[in-house]
Amino acid sequence: MHLQSRNKIKIGPGATAMANLVLLLLFFFIIMSLISPKNQLTVTLPKAETELPETADSAATTVVITESNTFFLSTTEGPDKARSFAEIQEQIILEVGNSGQAKLKIAGHKDANYEALFNVLGLAQSHGWQPILLYQK
Predict the structure, then answer these.
(1) Where do the domains of the chain lie?
(2) Is 128 in a helix, a strand, or coil?
(3) What DSSP character marks residue 25?
(4) In the beta sheet, which residues pair with residue 133?
(5) Could you read off the pLDDT of 45-83 as tens digits, one per residue?
(6) Are 124 and 83 in contact (CB under 8 A)?
(7) Fewer beta carbons below 10 Å: N end or C end of the chain?
(8) Taking Cα atoms as reference points, which of 114, 106, 108, 111 lies closest to residue 132?
(9) How far apart are CA 59 and CA 75, in angstroms?
(10) How many helices and strands in the chain, by DSSP H and E?
(11) pLDDT < 70 stretches in the chain
(12) What gap in Å lies between CA 24 and CA 18, rounded to an integer?
């Protein structure tokens, strides 16, 4: 009587040696990463500006977009006189025309709506003015 193994898969010494090697390498890299000194770089980050940056075009008209998506002209008005875009649009056109420069500074709050910014950019583009974008916290 001749008995044969029904299992056709033969596991030789190569597979176990490979598994042992992989585990040893894994342990080696884990231990080395825990033992090695931590290389920490100190990075000095720049401070944010809270004021509007001064540019060479200080005489240009500046439209400020507030957090509540209202507008005011920083040269002649304050935040207490902020109003909607439809109400201030004509005054922006007059101010830029009187300034003699075809430039419009736009300072927007970081929480202002994109639509408010695009309204002012569209006005500047339709009149051929150069928009100067400023960031305000």
Answers:
(1) 61-136
(2) coil
(3) H
(4) 106
(5) 787 665 655 554 565 788 888 888 888 887 677 777 888
(6) no
(7) N
(8) 106
(9) 9
(10) 3, 4
(11) 1-3, 5, 7, 10-14, 37-40, 48-59, 75, 135-137
(12) 10
